[in-house]
Amino acid sequence: MALAKNDTAAMTSAGLNLIQQGLSIYDEHLKLVICNRPFLEMFDLPESHGKPGARFQDTIRLLVERGEYGPVDDVAEAVAMRVEQARAFTPHYMERERANGRWVSVEGSPLPQGGWVAVYTDITRAKRQEALLRTRSEALSDKVLGYAEELAAANRELEATITALEEAKRQLAETEARTRQTTEMMPAHIAHVDRNRRYTFSNRKLSSVMPGRPSEITGLDIEEALGEEIYTAIAPHLDKAFAGEASVFEFFIESSSRRIRAAFTPAQDLDGPSGPDSGGVYILSMDITREAQARTALQQTRRREMAAQLTSGMAHDFSNLLTIILGSQSRLQRMDLPGSAQQQVEATLSAAHRGGSLLNRIADITGAREWNPAPADVALLLDDMKILATPALPNGFTLHISNLLHDNMLMLDTGMLQDSLLNLILNARDACGKSGEISLTVAPVQNLWAEFIVEDNGPGFSDAALSRAMEPFYTTKGGEGSGLGLSMVYDMAKLAGGRLRVANGEKGARITLRLPLRPAPPPLAPGLVLLVEDSADIREVLRPMLTAMGNTVVEATSYDEALALIEGLPEIKRILSDISLIGEKTGIDLRNALPESAPPIHLMTSRPPDDALHKTAAANGPVLRKPFTQSQLTSFLQQDPNSP
Fold first, then answer.
1. pLDDT above 50: residue 473
2. What's the average model confidence in pLDDT over 64-72?
3. DSSP string, 484-515
4. CB atoms within 10 A of CB 500
5. What sign does the CA torsion over 15, 18, 21, 22 have?
6. Are the beta carbons of 607 and 579 closer than 8 angstroms?
7. DSSP letters along 47-108, please?
């Protein structure tokens, strides 16, 4: 059972009183913290001077006035001198004869919290024995006796010094342990290398910041510890640091796909400034891969906004010109023209339509597109890719799709990603000619990236194509290509905070698309879904897509039917509704009519984004545009329907 606070204080006081020596502890404000009974009795002090809070200067004044320190001309000056000595307290040991003829030794040590502790020992008996020894030891010379006395005093002083040193050593060990613990808790690698470029200190975070490198590196050469790839990247900055120039820089580690920010700070010797002969270099390294992904996505968004401002006016005028050309050529086409003239009209119409298609693709690049990641099943997305791409591949082509991901549920914008992958597959088809092999492989990289690799066995990229492949409007297809496909993929990668690399592989072209690997939250549990759709044909398509997710489905065609089912079936978990329904009321009206306790409602539509109803619905939550794939529907249903 724990002792009460008063009991503990009483036991402490009783224990101190059993000590034969006097003891006193004063705090940093020169007020008494505690003393024992022998202290009061040794100096014949009143009880008031032994209570906590008693002032040091009052006790000193009393002792000075009694003559404890011998004759004093100015009492106030003597008290002030001893108070100043106490304020600058240092470890000491001394012996003095008191006014009453007795001898006392005083041993004092400062405390880490401030203040000091002093121990007073009555050494009168020892002093008398020394005097008796001096008197009776005629055989000893005065010099030897003096040495013996000095040695005895020195031993006592040495013991006091050793005690102070041991306390300082303990405090130093505690400080070092706290410093080590602090560096280990930091999400960064902290180290020091000496003039010989060997680590003299390092926490154990190198392997987490730079995977593949060792954790215990103290004593190792920095090039040996980091490896050739990393050392080559940091060597110029390290040379500058040894020359006295601090630096903060970033570099990319290709083997681990990590971006690192490092700070090199020249260390200073205690006896001189930093320079070529300084005390080494302090190193701080942090993994900023996630930060760089977000920063790249933000930069790309800003570039898109600037490009949109520059091209919006031009695109508007160009669109008007195309409208005039198409109208004029359509009127000419209806006239009775010679065959050759009719062919020219058709060619002009075809070119104008291609111009309109090109204008739409420019709008896709410069418009306000955003990367909107949502929970997506990569396996389903790849199945959809197989379905979408296979009809576009002629006989003689094969498409191999491999999924090496450990977790298929990731945060992705399935629409933008599918467009990009389909674009890469069709580019590979065009490069191969009449036949070829195309592969799409998905794999994780360092648990930071999802890597999509599209390869073919065609002729590969020329040197010129490799250097200009991602430039808008650059194409090797002559008049058949717009030159925007790969540029759009590059644009999508940057929006997502990813990377796109164009290269030649062992057989042909190899394009690597890396996107941030962000696991999706756990999928929603399957349950009863209310499908509200006025078209029977569309319900026939959507029902198996919903049941494939493990759901059961009930159906309605109108606002009234849906409300009746919601009220009668409390087990409904979520609602998927078209905006357009039978009757005057819409899916938007249904969403607005539901109470807060109702299941979440997700809206879909085939209306264009500029339609008034589409805009109204999108202002209060995401809207799924028809047609859509299984993976797009799966991702859509996992989004918050109330987040604009």
1. no
2. 87
3. -HHHHHHHHHHHTT-EEEEEE-SSSEEEEEEE
4. 22
5. positive
6. yes
7. GGGGSTT-BHHHHHHHHHHHTTTS--S-HHHHHHHHHHHHHT---EEEEEE-TTS-EEEEEE
| Other Cβ atoms closer than 10 A to 441 | 15
Tokens of 196: 């010989």
Nearest to 11 by CA among 28, 31, 45, 34: 34
Closest by CA to 298, choosing from 568, 569, 48, 495, is 495
Q: What is the per-residue pLDDT across 431-440, written as a single tens digit (0 to 9) for each?
A: 888 889 999 9
Place of tokens 């389903």: 380
* 280 DSSP 8-state letter: -
* Terminal alpha carbon distance of the chain: 60
Own/partner long-range contacts of 195-198 (Cβ < 8 Å, ≥24 apart): 195/242, 195/277, 195/278, 195/279, 195/280, 196/221, 197/221, 197/222, 197/223, 197/238, 198/222
CA pair distance 426, 432, nearest whole angstrom: 10
Predicted pLDDT of residue 303? 60
Residue carrying structure tokens 């509200």: 532
Higher per-residue confidence, 435 vs 310: 435
Measured distance CA(105)–CA(120) in Å, rounded: 6
Cα dihedral across residues 368, 372, 376, 379: positive or negative:
positive
The model's confidence at residue 185, banded by pLDDT at 50, 70 and 90, is confident
What type of residue is 186?
M
Token look-up 């040894």 returns 242
Contact 517, 449 (CB under 8 A): yes
CB 194 within 8 A of CB 187: no
- The DSSP 8-state label assigned to residue 404 in this structure reads -
pLDDT for 321 beyond 80: no
Neighbours of 253 (CB within 10 A): 22
